[in-house]
Design a protein that fits this description.
Pfam families: Transposase_22. It comes from Gouania willdenowi. This is L1 transposable element RRM domain-containing protein. Keywords: Coiled coil. The protein has three domains: 81 residues; 95 residues, Alpha-Beta Plaits, CATH 3.30.70; 82 residues, Rec A Protein, domain 2 (2-Layer Sandwich). The protein has a five-stranded antiparallel beta sheet, with helices on one face. The protein has eight helices and eight strands. The radius of gyration is 64 Å and the shape is rod-shaped. It is α+β, with helices and mostly antiparallel strands. 61% of the residues lie in helices and 12% in strands. The chain starts with a helix and ends in a 25-residue tail after the last helix. The N terminus and C terminus are likely disordered.
Length: 345
Amino acid sequence: PKFTKRRLSMNFNQLSGTSRKYTQKLLSPSSIAEGGHIMAEDKHVSPTVVESLMSEMKRELQSCREAMAADIKAQLENMHRELKNDITSLRAETKAEVGALREDILHKMDSLRNAHAQTAKEQKEMGGALSDVTDRLVILEKNHDMLTKDHKKLQEKCTDLENRSRRQNLRVVGIAEGIEAGNPSRFVAEFFPDVLGAGSFDTPLLIDRAHRSLAPKPRDGERPRALIVRLHYYADKEKILKLSREKGRLIYKGSPVHIFPDMSPEVGKQRAAFNQVKAGLRQAKIPYSMYYPAKLTFTLDNIRHSFTNPQDADTFIRANITHPAYKPFHYFIIIEAEPFNFLLI
């Protein structure tokens, strides 16, 4: 466009120059001077001379006009050709540029279309994979819940079987270390009659085995480990527990001892959680019982109450027992022994 505008400006300048050239030729200073000289010399020029001069001037003007018209026409034709060539060239260049731009846009559109198709494909695949993962997760959650229930049942069964295997076991707490002199079975066979009374047993106790608990051996001054005793007959074990409850406080060689049924660690922890509640009940002079696995039972105002949760038991007792000796406790666990032994198992 700048080139065409410049070309048009140049052509119009040429036309203006041609017009000025022919005007200067027609009205040249010599012609004007000559006519003026004739008019000055003879003020009384005849009409014939004037007409002759006018005719000659008309002819020259006509000739100049025709020459100007021919020259202008030639220049206009030349300008037309040049403009036509410029427009044709400009059209070709514009068409080429538009074509190149179109090809570039089409190429980019194809790239975008391919990228969109690939993205849509990947999104579809991801949606399918996510749906599959969701389905598998639902199945896994169901299986997990089922396995959790089965695990809980199996754990309860294992705990029950372990405690059944300990049904003939007793745990004796408070016996000094080393007093068994390397033969714990013979020692406990003599210990029970000494503590509970020899007349309480018609026949000697049959002890399958006896040993200290598996805790590390204590140092001097520390609490001794418990003795684990397995009796051959279940009836003997029940008889020993009954006599222990009836006698109350047991003393052996000047030291208090306690006799408990031997339980698994899980049941022991569950029962030990009630220790502080039971201590409070003893302070309030309220008898209680512990049933397997860990169920605290006591009677208050002729109503029997049972608890499997120590916090619930403590809350109930604080709300219903006004005995000044009972105070709320912080809960902690004692695995080896309980402070007293008058329990109904």
